[in-house]
Amino acid sequence: MAKKESTFANMVLTLLMVTAIAAFTLSMIYNVTKEPIERGRYERKQAAISFVVPEFDELKTRFFMPADGRDSLEFNFAYKDGELVGVAVETYTMMGFSGYISAMVGFYPDGTIYDVVHLQHEETPGLGDKIQKDVSDWSDQFQGFDPSEKTLKVRQDQGDVDGITAATITARAYCDAINRAYLTLMKNLDQIDMSLEE
Question: What is the 8-class DSSP label of residue 126?
Answer without folding.
Answer: T
